[in-house]
Design brief:
The complex is a heterodimer of chains A (about 160) and B (about 525). Chain A is an alpha+beta fold and about 160 residues long. Chain A is built from two helices and eleven strands. In chain A, strand 5 and strand 6 form a beta hairpin. The termini of chain A are far apart. Chain B is mainly α. Chain B has two domains: about 70 residues, no CATH class; about 425 residues, no CATH class. Chain B is about 65% helix and about 0% strand. Chain B is built from 19 helices and four strands. In chain B, the strands form two sheets. Chain B has a two-stranded antiparallel sheet. Chain B has a two-stranded antiparallel ribbon with strand order 3-4. The chains are: A alpha+beta (about 160), B mainly alpha (about 525). The interface between A and B is large, with 60 and 76 residues.
Chain lengths: ~160, ~525
C-alpha cells in the first residue's frame, strides 16, 4: 500500500472518529434544551404547597412578591413560586432556573429574601446582571415588576 | 428540536402560568416538557449507522495495511456486527422507546473498535504462528462476535424482564447476596478451576471461562442503591464536625467496614487488586451520592489505603505489582516486561498513531485483553485514544444525566452507580496500562476481548437505558403517581419506598441542603412509605 494513501487513510479515520464524538456531543447539546425546560418548570409546581405549610406567615403576608416570572428569553413564561428559599440562576444544572444562554455564567445570580424584601446578587458572572438599566454590583433590593436582565433572559418578581 | 418555550403555549403573561402553578400535581406541568421530548430513536439509528461505518472503515484499513485480501471472514464479521446492532436497536425501540439515544451507539462503537483491534491482534498471532510453524491459533475476533451476540441477548433480556427499574429495588438483598457469592466463588473453588495467570477471579467451565466479578459489579450497584434508599438516614445522622466536615458517628461505620472487609478479602484471597478497587470505589461513590458527605469518601479512602498498605506488606503478588509500578524498567525482561512493552507501544504510536494495522501491538502480552489500550494507542495514537476516552466519558455522563433526570431515588442511585462503574473501570484499566496506578488486570469495558466483561457491560447498559427511559418518558404514559392519589391500592412495593423522595432532595443548592440534609421537609414524608415497606 502506498505510503501516501496510508497517511491519508490514517488521518481520515481519526477525523471520522472525532466526527462521531462531535455528533454525539451535538445530541447532548440538544438534550440540554429539554433539560432546562424540565428544570425551570419543576420547582414552580412543587414548591407552593411546601412554602404554604412550613411558612404560613409568609403565605399570609399578601404584600410581598409571590412568584418570579421569566418575561423574555428562551424560557419566557416560566413561573417559579417564591417560598423563602434563595433562587439560583445560571447555566449550572442544579440551578433553580437553568439558563441555556451563551451570555449567562454557570452560577450567574442569586435572588434571595431578607425580611420582606427580595435582593438580587451577582455571583461574579462574566457579563453581569442588570436591575432595570443598572448593573448589579452588590446585593440590591428588587422592587415588584422591575426587570432583571441576565444575558437574553429577563425576569421579574410578581405578587 | 423544539425548545420548551412558553410552557402551556402562552406568552409571558399569566395566561400560561396557572397550568404550572397547580400545587402537588406534578402531572399538570409535565405536558410542556413532554412536547419537547421526542423519543429520538432516529438519532440513535443514525449514530449506530455511523458507528458501523467507522468500524467497517477500521476493519478495511487493518486488512489493507496488513496486505490481506478482503476475505469472506471480514464480511461475516461486519455483517454479524451490524445485525447485532440492528437487533439491539429494534429491541430498544420496542421496550424502551424513550431511552437515551446516545448510550447504545457509544457502546456499539467501543465494541466495534474493540472487535477490529482483536481481529488485528489475531492477524499478528496467525502470522507469528505461521512463521514458527505452529498451528493456527483460534481467532478471538470470531469468538468475540459470538460474545457480542450473547451480550445483546442479555441486553434484550434485561429490557424485557425489567420493564420498570424500580422492581429491582425489591431484589436488593438478593442481588447483594448473589453478588457476594459470585465474588467469593473463585476464592473457594480449587485453584485449577479458578486461577488464570495468578489471579483467582475465574470460573472455568470446560472451554468457556467466566469472570464472575464483572456480573457482581452490577449486582452490587443494585444492592447498594436499594440499601441506601431504605437506610439513608443511618448514613446521614449527625456526628462530630471536624475540619469543616460532618463525620459520622463511629457506630454508623458498620456497613462501610463490612464493604471494606469484602474488598480486602478479595485483595488477599483472590490476589486481585482490580476487582477490589472497583468494588470499594463503587461503594464509596454511591455513599457519597446518597449522603452528599465527603467525609464518607475520605474515611473510605483512608481505610482502603491502610488495607492496601497492609496487603502490600504481606501479599507477594501485590508487592510485585507495586514494584513494577514504581519502576517498570527495573526488571524489563521479567515482571516489568508487559508494562514497559505497553509504554513503548504507546510511545511508538505518539500523537497520530502508526495507522490501523501498521503497528506491532502484538509485542505486548495480552494485547487483546488487559492491554488493548496500548494496542489501540499504538495504532490510533493520542488523538484516537483521546476520542475513545471521550466516548467512555460520554457514556458515563449519559448515565449520570439519567440519574439527575429520573424522579425516584433508587433510579438515581442505580444510574449514578452504573455510570460511575464504567468510568471507574476505565480509569483503573487505563491508569494501569499507562503506569499511573499499579497495573491491575481488569478489562476495558466493551473494548477488551473477554466474554464476561462484554456480556455484563451490555446488561449494565440495558439498565442505564431502562432508567433513562423512565426519566424521559412523558407523564401521560405513566401510571398515576402515588403523590397524586395516595388511594391507589396497587402501588408496587418498590415504588412506595422510592417515589416519595423527590428530586429536590438530591438537587442541592436551591433547597439549601448543604446546611443539614435530613432536616429537609421531604424527609418526614419520605419515611412513611418506608415504614410500610418494612411492614410488608
Amino acid at each position: 500500500m502506498p505510503e501516501l494513501v496510508l497517511q491519508i487513510t490514517r488521518a481520515g479515520f481519526l477525523a471520522l472518529l472525532w466526527l462521531f464524538v462531535l455528533a454525539a456531543l451535538r445530541v447532548v447539546r440538544s438534550d440540554l434544551y429539554a433539560a432546562s425546560g424540565l428544570r425551570a418548570a419543576a420547582p414552580g409546581g412543587r414548591r407552593p404547597p411546601r412554602g404554604g405549610t412550613s411558612k404560613p406567615a409568609r403565605g399570609g403576608g399578601r404584600s410581598g412578591p409571590k412568584a418570579l416570572i421569566v418575561t423574555a428569553g428562551a424560557l419566557a413564561g416560566t413561573r417559579i413560586a417564591l417560598d423563602g428559599r434563595p433562587i439560583m440562576i445560571g447555566r449550572a444544572d442544579d440551578s433553580t432556573l437553568v439558563l441555556d444562554d451563551d451570555y449567562a455564567s454557570t452560577r450567574h445570580a442569586r435572588i434571595s429574601q431578607s425580611g420582606d424584601d427580595w435582593y438580587v446578587e451577582d455571583l461574579g458572572s462574566t457579563n453581569g446582571t442588570y436591575l432595570d438599566r443598572n448593573k448589579v454590583s452588590g446585593p440590591t433590593r428588587v422592587p415588584l415588576g422591575t426587570p432583571i436582565r441576565i444575558g437574553k433572559t429577563v425576569i421579574e418578581l410578581r405578587s | 428540536m423544539t425548545r420548551p418555550t412558553a410552557p402551556g403555549g402562552a406568552g409571558p403573561g399569566p395566561a400560561g402560568a396557572p397550568g404550572i402553578e397547580r400545587p402537588a400535581d406534578r402531572t399538570a406541568m409535565r405536558p410542556a416538557v413532554a412536547a419537547a421530548v421526542s423519543t429520538r430513536r432516529g438519532v440513535e439509528l443514525a449514530l449506530l449507522g455511523f458507528a458501523a461505518v467507522i468500524t467497517t472503515g477500521a476493519l478495511v484499513l487493518v486488512e489493507a495495511n496488513q496486505e490481506q485480501e478482503l476475505t469472506w471472514t471480514l464480511l461475516y464479521l461486519g455483517a454479524a456486527y451490524m445485525a447485532i446492532l440492528a437487533a439491539a436497536h429494534v429491541a430498544v425501540r420496542k421496550f424502551a422507546p424513550y431511552a437515551d439515544p446516545l448510550v447504545l451507539p457509544l457502546a456499539a462503537l467501543l465494541n466495534g473498535l474493540g472487535l477490529v483491534m482483536i481481529h488485528r491482534v489475531d492477524l499478528a498471532r496467525i502470522a507469528r504462528a505461521a512463521s514458527l510453524g505452529n498451528d493456527e491459533p483460534t481467532q478471538e475476533a470470531l469468538r468475540q462476535v459470538g460474545w457480542t451476540a450473547i451480550g445483546i441477548v442479555f441486553f434484550v433480556g434485561m429490557l424485557v424482564l425489567v420493564p420498570d427499574h424500580r422492581t429491582l429495588a425489591r431484589y436488593g438483598y438478593t442481588a447483594g447476596f448473589v453478588g457476594l457469592v459470585l465474588l467469593a466463588l473463585p476464592a473457594v473453588l480449587p485453584a485449577s478451576l479458578s486461577e488464570v495467570n495468578g489471579a483467582r477471579i475465574w470460573i472455568r467451565l470446560g472451554p468457556a471461562s467466566i469472570q464472575p466479578g464483572e456480573f457482581a459489579k452490577i449486582l452490587f450497584v443494585v444492592f447498594f442503591a436499594s440499601f441506601l434508599v431504605v437506610k439513608r438516614d443511618l448514613f446521614t445522622s449527625a456526628g462530630k464536625r471536624f475540619l469543616g466536615m460532618t463525620f459520622p458517628r463511629p457506630r454508623d461505620l458498620g456497613p462501610l467496614l463490612v464493604a471494606w472487609g469484602v474488598a480486602m478479602a478479595v485483595l488477599v484471597f483472590e490476589s486481585d487488586l482490580g476487582t477490589s478497587l472497583m468494588f470499594f470505589g463503587i461503594v464509596l461513590v454511591m455513599l457519597y451520592v446518597a449522603t452528599e458527605r465527603i467525609s464518607w469518601v475520605i474515611i473510605g479512602l483512608v481505610i482502603f489505603g491502610a488495607g492496601a498498605f497492609a496487603a502490600w506488606t504481606f501479599v507477594s503478588r501485590v508487592q510485585t505489582r507495586v514494584s513494577v509500578w514504581l519502576d517498570p524498567f527495573a526488571d524489563f525482561n521479567g515482571r516489568g516486561f508487559q508494562v514497559s512493552q505497553g509504554l513503548f507501544g504507546l510511545a511508538t504510536g505518539g500523537v497520530g498513531g502508526t495507522g490501523l494495522g501498521a503497528g506491532r501491538p502484538e509485542l505486548v502480552p495480552f494485547a487483546s485483553t488487559d492491554f488493548i489500550f496500548t494496542s489501540l494507542g499504538e495504532e490510533i495514537g493520542l488523538v484516537g485514544i483521546a476520542a475513545l476516552l471521550l466516548i467512555y466519558c460520554l457514556l458515563a455522563t449519559r448515565a449520570m444525566r439519567s440519574a439527575l433526570a429520573v424522579r425516584d431515588t433508587f433510579g438515581k442511585l442505580l444510574a449514578a452507580g452504573l455510570g460511575f462503574a464504567i468510568a471507574w473501570q476505565v480509569f483503573v484499566v487505563v491508569g494501569g496500562v499507562i503506569n499511573l496506578i499499579p497495573n491491575t488486570g481488569i478489562t476495558a469495558p466493551f473494548v477488551s476481548y473477554g466474554g464476561s466483561s462484554l456480556v455484563a457491560n451490555y446488561a449494565l447498559v440495558a439498565l442505564v437505558l431502562r432508567v433513562s427511559n423512565a426519566a424521559r418518558q412523558p407523564a401521560s404514559e405513566k401510571r398515576p403517581s402515588p403523590a397524586a392519589g395516595p388511594s391507589a391500592p396497587l402501588a408496587p412495593l418498590a415504588e412506595a419506598s422510592t417515589e416519595m423522595v423527590q428530586r429536590d432532595q438530591v438537587r442541592t443548592p436551591p433547597s439549601g441542603v448543604h446546611h443539614q440534609e435530613p432536616a429537609g421537609p421531604a424527609a418526614p414524608t419520605g419515611r412513611a412509605p418506608r415504614g410500610r415497606t418494612r411492614g410488608e
